[in-house]
Amino acid sequence: MQKILGLDIGTYSIKAAIIWNDYKIINDYKNYLVHQLIEQKIEYKEGINEKEAQTQAIDALIKNYNLEFDTVYAAIDSKNVSIRKVDFQNIRKRDIVGFLENELESSSPFAIEDSILDYQIIEYTKNKSSVLSVLSKKEVIKDILDIIEKEHLRVKVLDIDNLTYLNMLSFLDKETNSNSENIHENVEEGEKQNIFSNLIINIGHSKTTLTFLADKKVLYTRIISIAGDYFNQVLKQKFELNYSEAEILKHFVSSMEISSTEESDSKRNLVSIVLSQAITELGIEILRTIQSFIAKENIKIKSVFLTGGSSKIKGVKDYFQVILNLPVTGIKIRKENFMFQDDEFSDNASEASLSVFSQSLAIAMRGLPVIGIASKINLRKGEFAQVSNYDKLIKQIFLYSSSVAIVLFALFLSYFIRSFLYNKEIDTLKNQFRKDVIAMSNGEPYNLRAISGKKDWDFKTYGDEAIQFLKQNMKDKQIIIENYSSLEPALPLRLMNQVSIAIPKDIYFEVSEFRFQDNQLYIEAETNNPDNINKIIDKLSKIKELKQVSKKSQSNKVGSEKKITHFSIIASVTNGEG
């Protein structure tokens, strides 16, 4: 029997899911047993850092519960890695790693030599390919392995938390979404496409992750820093509480809906209003991400699955269904594939429990024998690779022995060794100089890349071009600084303040862009009534610095059912100080 432990290491708690696979088939379906679902809250005490607190929580988890497992799967917080979709043309699979390293060298937030790189193929054809690359700093991997393996747990696979939802894709119960009121039915038959995407929204403690899944692969991910911790901070500031009191208040009310049985200004309703405002911020960010994804990928969203501890706040699911104009449900897994240990564990199959443990379950599902639909990311590579059998160890010993023999033979060829070392030092110097140029210029200029892209490129030519480029770059920056220092920063700030004062508070006026350039003011904003635009223009015309205030564009915002109007305004600006 296979016993798999999935560990979800968060900033609020450690969640564990243990799945047993006895390789039985029931009613023509492969059936697995969810043996245990456990959550251990992380206790932060004075003088103890986050790493130590997480280690103590795992220790308490092991000591307080009778965990039965033989394989451990874990995942790194996606906030600590760089995830990018990279497109290639005419590339062989064996060349992907080399091309990725070259592509990420100048654009990644981490140095390649200090990181571990892995990838998963999204699309591969003869002419065009796309991969999802994952880059993590070695120190981050070392920290997470130290936290887990300090308690003698050996991690087999180290994945990325939100990417593990691909493991769950084939087990999701999509019937609920399919049979619910189809909000997407206003799409005409001619617009329907063969590929639809599922979106999993995980509202956790420190972040909200959006994972777009379709056709057995991850298409796109995004992290939004609005989640449970942000809700606590908003309540703390609004009601002048300490953090613990704000968190208790959030859990006690746990609703964004106004209670009709209480006074409108009751404490419970005031908390619900504050939560509603914070969740609205999150909803707007999610909507913008979905609109951007659809526009870029030309793929419609079929279903939205909502999960995470903060998704249990009452009213969140209904609100997202309205603002996103998509069917939204909690995560459910197919009963024909999974059953829960004994009757007392049956409640764990509910949406409320799965919203808490969906991430740890998805991590554990990596160990199930699912062909084709699973995450392929594993950061246990290089110096962090785990030797699982003696055959590999014997092969490595043989390789090392062969290397020693080659070195001994090379001792007799001192001339060639000296030549090799000399060339190696030159190459090291060249590469270091090139890295310094890339770092100083925020990327390698095209003319320099044309030189360094050649085999055995000429150092002198590259150096002359680089020095000339850096000198010109310094001159350009000096000119920019001089121009910037001559600008008067007070006028744009004064205009922004006067616009804010001029517009009455009862007019909905949400500014998305405020740009001042060449004595021209450009404002891009949203309002909930087209008639408000003329009122806004009239108010702005009364500002003495603004002349010729006029509307430039007007349109209904996509996805708002014509309730929100997007518009832009331009105006000439005079200093007005005389």
UniProtKB/TrEMBL annotation:
SUPFAM superfamilies: Actin-like ATPase domain
Database matches in Pfam families: PilM_2
InterPro entries: ATPase_NBD, FtsA/MreB, PilM
Keyword Membrane recorded: yes
Keywords: Membrane, Transmembrane, Transmembrane helix
UniProt KW rRNA-binding keyword: no
Transmembrane domains' residue ranges: 397-417
Listed name of the protein: SHS2 domain-containing protein
Annotated source species: Silvanigrella paludirubra
Source taxonomy: Bacteria, Pseudomonadati, Bdellovibrionota, Oligoflexia, Silvanigrellales
